[in-house]
């Protein structure tokens, strides 16, 4: 099969098309013939050598895909060869075939084509797991950064479906328009004084929940902007990993700070999250409450170009690789 290998840690040019043996599904695993492969920010970090795969995971990049069931491992049941599916993976998706634990494979949302489906489960699982963790409720004030990105555009729509008031940030006027078009009540440029703008929107009551992709560089502002009982959940470290946490401010507000990562969780936890995504998120996509982000597609062999686009920050929505083109 064709796969994309990281020749050595480095820039997009280190991504090379190679021929590899097709993987063989073990007990409780499913072999998937990939249709579309989601490109995620974590893939850029892994390519640079900063985000090694968890023990036992494929060394190939790729945390999600859509496709069709090609074969079942021993004791596999519930699937037939040819069934359409999507998978959440710890790695290995940048290939024509990938093996996934059966619990991390679900049917695509009804009414969604298989290419679009390839970029849904990583963001859906991340947003659902984290907003469940901090218990986002109807009527609460919610802030998400990068509202036109993969996670951000999904988080805006999911929070609106929950009934929250949504503030999103983005880096350009077009992306701010996109945030509004998918339901953000307020769209703020992160290049301006967004903390002051948040303060004037919340009128001193503060934010209830923040889904944070930045980490250290926004930590002090985030803790200051939380309201009483507010919850900050850090899922990305684009602004660094070490910051100053004002515990006095946090305890006065009875606030919470969480930090989570989806990829290294045990298979059973990921399986439980995938089941919740299929049960609670897929119907909101099928009925149109959540619209999949726009996609930019590249042939699998052009993975380097896909990484360049994601790295440039110029893309809107999801970037996908297509093995069959
Ligand atoms: N912990 C987990 O389990 C987990 C799982 C998946 C993703 N993540 C993390 O979630 C984040 C988003 O992932 P993604 O797949 O959605 O990537 P993405 O589409 O590349 O989004 C990155 C976002 O960061 C925004 N951004 C850049 N500079 C910013 C700044 N100074 N202030 C605020 N926002 C800024 C960008 O906004 P513009 O495009 O408007 O510039 C963009 O929307 C990444 O950090 C990723 O590592 C974590």
Automatic annotation (TrEMBL):
It comes from the Bacteria. Keywords: NADP, Oxidoreductase. InterPro entries: ADH-like_C, ADH-like_N, ER, GroES-like_sf, NAD(P)-bd_dom_sf, Quin_OxRdtase/zeta-crystal_CS, Quinone_OxRdtase_PIG3. Gene3D superfamilies: Medium-chain alcohol dehydrogenases, catalytic domain, NAD(P)-binding Rossmann-like Domain. GO terms for molecular function: NADPH binding; oxidoreductase activity, acting on NAD(P)H; zinc ion binding. Pfam families: ADH_N (PF08240), ADH_zinc_N (PF00107). Residues 10-321 form the Enoyl reductase (ER) domain. PANTHER family: OS02G0805600 PROTEIN, QUINONE OXIDOREDUCTASE PIG3-RELATED. This is Putative PIG3 family NAD(P)H quinone oxidoreductase.
């Amino acid at each position: 099969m064709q796969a994309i290998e990281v020749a050595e840690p480095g820039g997009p040019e280190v991504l090379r098309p190679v021929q590899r043996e097709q993987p063989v599904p073990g007990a409780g695993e499913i072999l998937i013939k990939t249709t579309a492969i989601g490109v995620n920010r974590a893939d850029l970090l892994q390519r640079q050598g900063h985000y090694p795969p968890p023990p036992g995971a494929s060394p190939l990049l790729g945390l999600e895909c859509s496709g069709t069931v090609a074969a079942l491992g021993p004791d596999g049941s519930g699937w037939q060869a040819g069934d359409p599916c999507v998978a959440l993976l710890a790695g290995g998706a940048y290939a024509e075939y990938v093996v996934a634990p059966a619990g991390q494979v679900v049917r695509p949302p009804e009414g969604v084509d298989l290419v679009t489906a390839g970029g849904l489960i990583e963001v859906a699982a991340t947003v659902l797991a984290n907003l469940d963790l901090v218990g986002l409720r109807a009527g609460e004030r919610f802030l998400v950064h990068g509202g036109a990105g993969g996670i951000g555009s999904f988080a805006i729509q999911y929070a609106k479906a929950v009934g929250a008031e949504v503030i999103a940030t983005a880096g350009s006027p077009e992306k701010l328009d996109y945030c509004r078009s998918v339901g953000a009540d307020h769209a703020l440029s992160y290049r301006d004084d967004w903390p002051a703008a948040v303060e004037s929107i919340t009128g001193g009551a503060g934010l209830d929940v923040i889904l944070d992709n930045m980490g250290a560089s926004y930590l002090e502002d985030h803790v200051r902007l939380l309201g009483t009982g507010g919850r900050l959940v850090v899922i990305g470290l684009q602004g660094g990993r070490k910051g100053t946490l004002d515990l006095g401010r946090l305890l006065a507000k009875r606030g919470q700070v969480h930090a989570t990562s989806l990829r290294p969780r045990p298979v059973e936890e990921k399986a439980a999250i995938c089941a919740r995504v299929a049960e609670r998120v897929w119907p909101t996509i099928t009925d149109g409450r959540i619209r999949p982000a726009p996609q930019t597609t590249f042939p699998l062999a052009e993975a380097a170009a896909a990484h360049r686009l994601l790295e440039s920050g110029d893309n809107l929505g999801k970037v996908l690789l297509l093995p069959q083109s």
